[in-house]
Amino acid sequence: MAFNKKQKYIVGIVGATGAVGRRMLTTLEERNFPVDRLVLLASPRSAGQTFSFRGQSIPVEILTENSFEGLDFALFSAGASVSLKYAPFAVQAGCIVIDNSSAFRMDKNIPLVVPEVNPEAIPEQPGIIANPNCSTIQMVVALHPIHARYRIKRVVVSTYQSVSGSGQKAIAELTTQTIGVLDNKDCVSQVYPHQIAFNCLPHIDVFLDNGYTKEEMKMVNETRKILGDDSIQVSPTTVRVPVFYSHSESVNVETEEPISALDVKKLLHDSPGIRIVDDPDKNEYPLAINAEGKDEVMVGRLRDDISKERAINFWVVADNLRKGAALNAVQIAEHIIQR
Amino acid sequence: MAFNKKQKYIVGIVGATGAVGRRMLTTLEERNFPVDRLVLLASPRSAGQTFSFRGQSIPVEILTENSFEGLDFALFSAGASVSLKYAPFAVQAGCIVIDNSSAFRMDKNIPLVVPEVNPEAIPEQPGIIANPNCSTIQMVVALHPIHARYRIKRVVVSTYQSVSGSGQKAIAELTTQTIGVLDNKDCVSQVYPHQIAFNCLPHIDVFLDNGYTKEEMKMVNETRKILGDDSIQVSPTTVRVPVFYSHSESVNVETEEPISALDVKKLLHDSPGIRIVDDPDKNEYPLAINAEGKDEVMVGRLRDDISKERAINFWVVADNLRKGAALNAVQIAEHIIQR
């Protein structure tokens, strides 16, 4: 069915009590999204909680197959299994689904969208639109202008990902373990297979047969799909670090065309969604603690690769819960209502 | 003058009260180095402290130009300026200097040695021998067998370096800041230019004109010198993470010859100084908290690069104060007395 432009929209958040769901609520509020009514949906164990939205107290409702009647948008962030089960009911009810899980990302019939990069992938009559993985979003925002001008051949990326990417329980686990280590107590690990406090885990999501993790293969496959070029080669290593918010990434890019860090700095400065933070003389470079709560993807440490012609290095940081998830989803909705 | 074999040696530690100096003392003790007498040397502000060695209490003496009379070995770890000033006096006194600072590493007349890699670089009559930078040592222990068999063309490395690499004050700063952040207090940064607690700093040592840091260029230049091959290209990004002990590194290696991760796993398993920790099905991979206090360089996450032929990825972790500094220095001394 056709998307009807309205003055205000009824918006549902599925997984409203989670780390990303909460950011979806505040992002809708901060960006003055034209919300007629906000519907917060979650599992039965979250029922009874309330959240404040524009001064109103909104109760969390239990997610059911019938939750989507009358909704214009449903922003899903409750894991792939919830999306797989409930997104079809939302679509059937005439609701546009913007899904933050991995459920539909690599489905060739579902667009995978970063609004600064491939807004044209959003169809006239959207059903389900997939929101990419957090570590991919911030990288492709920086890679897109580079690819357009210099044609990217290969990317070698190592990530420094914060625990908030694993949800509220992981934030609590890092806090509890940190206090425990400083008190010389034994650490209990429930969210992660090993202690994350004062440690680095080269392991995000499950291991696959090729020795890479699912998180790493997301960076390979989603990057190609979003940039619309299966010839781009990506070699990723994804690592969890003891940081609460924002992912950092060390990115090496090889291109077809001659490239220089200085030109890329200007190019990215003029590209949407990016803030250049790159003044080594003043010790200025992107930092996780500074990206927290910010909308922009921050790029710095731009320099020519000294090991190879036609290659550069940079460091990219973004708030994984905002641009890496909630903000990107809301931007997709904004794009649909504004065009 | 000629090196005289003895049953026991008089050994001095310059910078005995620092993070590395203390590990030098415990390493000599643990490895039963044939110490006749241990001389602990430091700046006047450390005088009066005592340290226990083999049950004896050893006072810290003030470092002077005359401190080296009668010493067989002097292990320096008090910064480049101290080494530059005092190492010549030690050599003049007939003492072999093993220097952990950056002062002499790239001096073409001074050998730069990792005993598992290039013991042949130690001359018959040693004067000053340089100990490489911590982030370089653990990487070259893993790269050396790979280079010997497959000829390395290029390395792209991103590091996850612990604060102990910046000394005792940095360990204290991470502790204090961590408690402060959890208590919602403002953070004071003295050792680092920014908060290190729950953050990642893509900045180790000073920035150079080419946009790389000195730490990064150490990884380029020292790797070439130790492996004896200036054709090896290295593209490094060095990052400080909120970890107390042990450095982790994400390493991508491109080779001349066809290479497979499976073969490299066997090769490194049989190579000196390396422990393979690589069983993803059991969530086993090298971890900073497990490497602390260990002698071996731990290698895991070995996998074929999916982005390129003749390339692999791996994750290498070692105790930066031990193999990255104190242990490597003591191993050099052992090599001299044993050959």
What topology emerges from the helices and strands here?
Two copies of one chain form a homodimer.
Chain A: E1 9-14, H1 19-30, E2 35-42, E3 50-53, E4 56-62, E5 73-76, H2 80-92, E6 96-99, E7 128-130, H3 134-150, E8 152-160, H4 168-182, H5 214-227, E9 233-237, E10 247-255, H6 261-269, E11 274-276, H7 288-291, E12 297-304, E13 311-318, H8 322-338
Parallel strand pairs in A: 1-2, 1-5, 2-4, 5-6, 6-7, 8-9, 11-12
Antiparallel strand pairs in A: 3-4, 8-10, 10-13, 12-13
Written description of the protein model:
2 copies of one chain form a homodimer. Chain A is an alpha/beta fold and 339 residues long. Chain A contains 8 helices and 13 strands. Chain A folds into 2 domains: 137 residues, 3-Layer(aba) Sandwich (Rossmann fold), CATH 3.40.50; 185 residues, Dihydrodipicolinate Reductase, domain 2 (2-Layer Sandwich). In chain A, the strands form 2 sheets. The first copy, chain A, has a 7-stranded mixed sheet, with helices on both faces. A 6-stranded mixed sheet of chain A has the order 9-8-10-13-12-11. The model of chain A has no long low-confidence stretch (mean pLDDT 97). The interface between A and B is large, with 56 and 56 residues.
CATH superfamily of the largest domain in chain A: Dihydrodipicolinate Reductase, domain 2
Number of domains of chain A: 2
| CATH class division of the largest domain in chain A | Alpha Beta
Q: With helices defined by DSSP (H or I, 4 residues minimum), what is the helix count of chain A?
A: 8
Query: What oligomeric assembly is this protein in?
Result: homodimer
The residue fraction in helices of chain A comes out at: 25-40%
* SS-based class of chain A: alpha/beta
Q: What is the string of helix and strand elements of chain A?
A: EHEEEEHEEHEHHEEHEHEEH
* Model regions low in confidence, pLDDT < 50 over at least 5 residues of chain A: none
Most residues in contact, chain pair and counts: A-B, 56 and 56 residues
Architecture of the largest domain in chain A, CATH level 2? 2-Layer Sandwich
For the largest sheet of chain A, list the strands in their spatial order.
3-4-2-1-5-6-7
Silhouette of chain A: globular
- Biggest sheet details of chain A: 7 strands, mixed
CATH topology of the largest domain in chain A: Dihydrodipicolinate Reductase, domain 2
**What amount of the residues of chain A lies in strands?**
15-25%
Note the gap between the termini of chain A: 17 Å
